[in-house]
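Researcher: I'm comparing several assemblies side by side, and this is the next one on my list. It has 340 residues spread over two chains. Same procedure as the others: predict the full complex and return the structure.
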Amino acid sequence: MKNSKYFLITALAVVMGIALLVMTLVRTFIPMAVMPRLDIPNMVLLSVVALLLEHYLTGGSKGGYVVIFLLSALAFGLLPLAAFFAQPLEALKLAAVGGCVFTAVAWIFRSMQERLSSGPVARIAPVMGALGIYLAAQCFAGIL
Amino acid sequence: MKKILFPLLSVLLIAVVLFGASWALRSVAQANAQKEHLRLLQTLLPGSESFTLESYTGDDANIRSVHKGENGFVIETCTYGYAGEITMLIGVSNEGKVVGLRVLDMSETLGLGANALTDYEFLAQFLNTEGDVAIQTGGEDAFSGATGTAGGDAQTYVDGITGATVTSKAIARSVNSAVAYVTGADIDSGATSWGG
């Protein structure tokens, strides 16, 4: 997996697939449970989990933000639509917002890792960075 | 191009798996949802066994739908909290008293507003109120359950959730709107406006 430049998208698809599958099962068997919405903080959460997977499994990658935007937009639009969690129009909106959010988070996360990539701190830095990004996303959503 | 093919195929493959799983479980999900919804309505309005969905044509934008039971109503409301819509079901007796309430859907901040889902001490304060609820914030002298007047309208004060005043007020607005529907109170009166 060392040279797979777009492993990040596969990681995002797997993370989203697992999350949506769990939500499908909850919707089926515990229908009155309160489900998390695919809003900005939760998009960021999915994004940072995918980025952490990429970081620890492949060591991370650089660049390719146009392809990352297009494929992450496809994932954020198509997967909720396929699982009946979004109508077609809503899926388009999710695709646009999701693509922007994922690309921005990927850029921020990678920039942070480049600056924290030496010494013993490098092992835990990605997790702490991801946590910081998620908390910042919650504040950002509140401001919006 | 080859580098893009694998991630593209992985997205498509996972979409197919999700579609298949959701399609296969669709009928079970619908049956369970109907059964669970009826059970929830019966819990929120004790004493009623069956409910009819009534169309709502009033002016209160907080009310989404109305389920009429034998001894009252269960009203679905939707108000804006801190991070989006909060959907609730509120049971109100024919006498205009709140007999049950539950948050159905919300996306409030974890650890703060989202506590409204499970903070039963907070939610229980709304029981037996009559559409005159206002949230007690730290700077006021009134205490939980106290009554007073604000702008000429009688108020029952309840303690808000710490760090989640906006969420607490949104829930109070929902409760006041639901009771106002049953009692026929003016939705622009202090009963609903002061709750928020």
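Model: For your comparison table: Chain A touches chain B through 39 residues (CB under 8 Å).
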